[in-house]
Amino acid sequence: MKNFRSAIIGCGAIFPTHGVSVKHCERATLVAVCDIIKERAEKTAEKYACAAYTDYIEMLDKEKIDVVHICLPHYLHAPVAIECMKRGKHVITEKPLSVSVSDAQAMIDASEKHGVTLACIFQNRFNAGTQFVRNMFLSGELGAIKGARCSVTWYRPDSYYVADDWHGTWDKEGGGVIINQAIHTLDAMRYIMNAKPIEVYATIANRGDTHIEVEDTAEGAILFDNGVRANFHAINYYSFDDEVEINLDFEKGRAKILSDRATVKMSDGRILSSVTEPLSDIDYGEIKAYWGVNHFRQIDNVYKCLESGEEMFVDLKGAFETLKIVCAIYESGKSGAKVKI
Ligand SMILES: NC(=O)c1ccc[n+]([C@@H]2O[C@H](COP(=O)([O-])OP(=O)(O)OC[C@H]3O[C@@H](n4cnc5c(N)ncnc54)[C@H](O)[C@@H]3O)[C@@H](O)[C@H]2O)c1
Question: Would you say the CB of residue 318 lies under 6 angstroms from ligand 1?
């Protein structure tokens, strides 16, 4: 079995899901971490018994690294990933792939040019509810899809946005509730439908009490190439982080996904439910419950595929399609026009 030498850039909130996953992954060893905040890098390195850096270029120069995990603010995903790929490193970046379609395309071009793998984290694709409905649909059991809608009603106070210099900004975060929070739910809806988005007609607004420039509200329609016009609604000014919801109407049944669980009411009266298999040995420490537990499943799968050459479970093409939806929502929301993808 191969053992890949890994590094993680960005030791902030999402770091533990990558650090713990690498630790549990039999094909990977964490050799270095990097954060521009020195104490953060050093504290993390001490905990994980690896080297600490504040400059990722220096880390790439000094350490022998095969795989780089990018856990950075959104605007840095593209430049850092491209720099790593130029040096022959495989890259696993956190969502979103980048803040623009052109940046994402440049990342994909770089991975092809340099013959390395680029993976993007969408851990919730592993959720039992998502898999349950998608597999039933793909097997033909549910018949054709007729309608879809999803909603994310979460809460992000000012303290969340002022904790750093990137959340709540167009240039660094690339948007608000859509690109950061609802992106998972949009990705899951698109993935279950197994269809290509072709047009978006959306509104974005800032309706809460926070002092941010990006949207805390968005709603609209996404037209897919199967003829379904899916609806989405997302806000960051609810009173708590409610369960995200995806509803899908099929010829032979209706599916409701709440967080990671699904219930399907079949037209013949049967009610079917997903079963979640917990990852009992993985403890990410202090992370948000709504991030789920599936980072390990995705990261472990990426390393397995690096060794075997198989297709990754979370495909890059799908991550790009989801980013195209996100960028089209912003373009439509800003212009007021329908946007073709
Ligand atoms: N998959 C999920 O469910 C999930 C959940 C939360 C966050 N995320 C994603 O993870 C990424 C990071 O988010 P976060 O919440 O951990 O952010 P964060 O602000 O907590 O952490 C980012 C870290 O990057 C460091 N950093 C910034 N610029 C740097 C540079 N040039 N070199 C090295 N380090 C640098 C910062 O000092 C900080 O420690 C984002 O893409 C976010 O969307 C994903």
Answer: no
